[in-house]
Specification:
heterodimer, A: mainly alpha, B: alpha/beta, Rossmann fold, six-stranded mixed β-sheet, 14 strands
Chain lengths: 305, 364
């Protein structure tokens, strides 16, 4: 039973960077903007959070810096893609490449630095007592933050008026504009929010999950987050499920390997991707749902007349 | 274009080529320009870091006689060829290419620059002006295994590895044999991450191994994540490539580190003396190409003595980690009593020895 609790804790920990990045991008795409720069923003967030943590010894200040850095980079995207109306796909790809390079450059002097990261909660009598206690109180504080983000995004998109307008902007910016909503301003806000979330995902990697800085340390998680969103048909709870599924299967295949299961490791390495795609494709197999959930004007530039 | 101008163009090209070739031949005076190509950025720990500290040390050893230059983060393949050619053109007289994937680019460029000497790390093809060098990392793995075998309480070691290639497999096998030489009950569990560098995954693999009872971890991947994970989980770790005690002050019990400075100094000196010949060097503990990292605080004196004794025996050529009888983990006898493994068999190693759990992914 103890290993079970341990496994759940590890699974949530492994899925959390994806939760941050994918939820942020969900809001961006719901507003009809496709920002493929997630990987670059995550890395920028990671390096910024690490540098601030190393210099101030406050990991939470670092997390804040990570979110700001991610948002700052996404602002570059917003200006180019939303104001200057450049192609969103090309701009996003360029942003990713830029973020990878920028973070590597900025982080040069910090590769060797050791920091005191954010540790998993340990509340005496709760986090270490029973299994329930460990499951409820044994996670890294940033895992709770990601869950709070999930609740907030779900609530915002489906329970608030602004959320409704945001979705309308993603469906038909021309109509939203016609009835007086400020399409571009809202899209700017969404892109900045997405950037901040990606930055948080990176910050989680750099100051909580594996407290260190190394070039390219997110190792493609930004791209996985983007794919996750499509397979989850832009639904927050499916994004959450997909992220944990991905993390869980990654761990499960390591477990299988360590237990000496005779399946080639190359095959097992594919498993997280295959399982996530298959499961999400099955839940989302209904074509109508996909049509209804995919933002109709995703990736199309909008220019108010 | 008329006939005359075409001929003139050709003549100009020929003249340019001559002009380019001449200074290269005439520039033999002055310090030896030695250049390095690195596959990753120079960081604080890892493969490239070890090459770079050796470069700096060589420059010190041969002060005034050599100058050095390096290009870091060069992808293997077409880019590498361009970088190596640029270096050769810019007057480098001795070029070290420090990654396996530079083999063909190095050979190609070497053909075009017969006056430049090349040294390629971890490859297997030499040429008139291309020597190769590598280290017997497995000797260090065996010694680390001895320390791990003595320090483990659960008798389970966890090994986070990147890809099942002979280089990695011989490390796993040597580590296992080292462990079992002092602790016959010890077993090694292996997890493959299918990536040389992914700190998140390496740390997940390490945590999984700890959850399955491993209390000593080691790795054949490029980040410091495994040592950090060991520190966080309060288990022991054996670092690879570099000393990582900074990342795991309590966890690290020892490290297998690569030391190239002696070799680089030697090669540069022979080039200066004009006695350099392309060679196939596979050095080990004896040649100082591998050094064991500092022992961790937790390692008691008798274990340190045991390791140092074995180290001396390997250096003296009296101990080979792969000496029979040696069975693979399917029970097949691979070496009969007293037989030692050949270099050829080592470089093709595709099986787990007794004591490693599971089956090797490549099916060996």
């Amino acid at each position: 039973m103890d290993t079970c609790a341990q496994l759940v804790i590890l699974t949530l920990a492994a899925g959390t960077p994806l939760v941050f990045a994918a939820l942020g991008e969900l809001v961006v795409e719901k507003a009809g903007v496709l920002n493929l720069g997630v990987e670059g923003m995550m890395l920028t967030g990671a390096v910024a959070s690490f540098i601030v943590t190393a210099d101030t010894h406050s990991p939470w200040l670092g997390v804040g810096a990570g979110a700001l850095a991610g948002a700052a980079l996404s602002l570059v995207f917003a200006v180019i893609a939303l104001t200057l109306l450049a192609n969103q796909v090309a701009t996003g790809l360029a942003l990713s490449l830029f973020g990878v390079g920028l973070s590597a450059f900025v982080g040069r002097g910090y590769i060797s630095v050791v920091i005191e990261g954010i540790k998993p909660l340990s509340i005496p009598g709760l986090s270490d007592a029973a299994i329930v206690g460990r499951l409820l109180f044994g996670h890294n504080p940033m895992v709770y933050l990601s869950l709070a983000l999930f609740v907030a995004v779900q609530w915002f998109l489906h329970r608030t008026r602004t959320g409704l307008v945001l979705r309308a902007v993603g469906e038909s910016p021309a109509s939203a504009h016609a009835i007086g909503h400020r399409v571009i301003a809202l899209r700017y806000a969404a892109v900045l929010f997405g950037g901040a979330c990606a930055g948080l995902g990176g910050a989680y990697m750099a100051v909580a999950y594996t407290p260190s800085w190394a070039e390219g340390m997110t190792a493609g998680r930004g791209w996985i987050a983007l794919a996750l969103l499509v397979f989850a048909t832009w639904k927050p709870w499916r994004v959450l499920a997909g992220a944990y599924l991905f993390g869980g299967v990654t761990l499960a295949q390591f477990q299988a390997q360590a237990a000496g299961v005779a399946i080639p490791s190359q095959l097992l390495a594919m498993l997280p991707y295959v399982a996530t795609i298959v499961v999400l494709a099955i839940i989302s197999r209904d074509a109508t749902t996909i049509r209804l959930n995919a933002p109709a004007s995703l990736g199309r530039p909008f220019h108010p007349e | 274009m008329s006939r005359t101008t075409r001929r003139m163009t050709l003549a100009t090209i020929a003249a340019c080529a001559l002009a380019l070739a001449l200074p290269a031949a005439a520039q033999d005076k002055g310090p030896l320009k030695t250049c390095f190509v690195y596959v990753s950025p120079i960081s604080d720990a890892g493969w490239t870091h070890q090459h770079d500290i050796a470069r700096i040390q060589m420059e010190k050893n041969l002060a005034g006689k050599v100058t050095t230059k390096y290009v870091e983060n060069v992808p293997e393949g077409a880019d590498a060829e361009r970088v190596i050619r640029d270096l050769a053109q810019s007057g480098c007289k001795l070029i070290f290419t420090t990654s396996f994937g530079y083999m063909n680019p190095t050979l190609k460029v070497a053909k075009q620059f017969p006056n430049v000497d090349f040294e390629h790390a971890t490859g297997y093809r030499t040429a008139k002006n291309v020597g190769i060098y590598n280290a017997r990392f497995y000797e260090g793995r065996y010694l680390a295994g001895i320390v791990a075998g003595k320090m483990t309480k659960t008798n389970i070691a966890g090994y986070v590895a990147a890809f099942p290639i002979p280089e990695v497999v011989m490390g796993i096998d040597a580590f296992t044999r080292g462990m079992r030489s002092v602790n016959p009950k010890a077993v090694v569990k292996v997890v493959w991450t299918s990536s040389w560098f992914d700190p998140g995954r390496e740390s997940e693999a390490a945590n999984t191994l700890v959850a399955q009872g491993a209390d000593v971890l080691t790795h054949h991947t490029d980040s410091t994540a495994v040592v950090q994970a060991a520190e966080a989980k309060h288990v022991y770790a054996v670092a690879y490539h570099s000393d990582m005690s900074k990342y795991g002050p309590d966890a690290q019990i020892t490290a297998v580190t690569h030391v190239w400075d002696k070799y680089y100094t030697h090669v540069a000196q022979t080039v200066l003396d004009g006695t350099w010949k392309p060679d196939h060097v596979w050095g080990g503990i004896k040649d100082g190409m591998i050094k064991m990292g500092p022992f961790g605080k937790a390692v008691p004196q008798d274990v340190r003595d045991l390791e140092e004794k074995a180290e001396a025996e390997i250096a003296a050529g009296k101990l080979n980690p792969f000496t029979g009888p040696m069975k693979d983990n399917q029970g097949k006898l691979r070496l009969t009593a007293g037989q030692t493994i050949t270099d050829d068999a080592l470089s093709k190693m595709n099986y787990y020895v007794e004591g490693v759990e599971g089956t090797l992914p490549s099916g060996g």
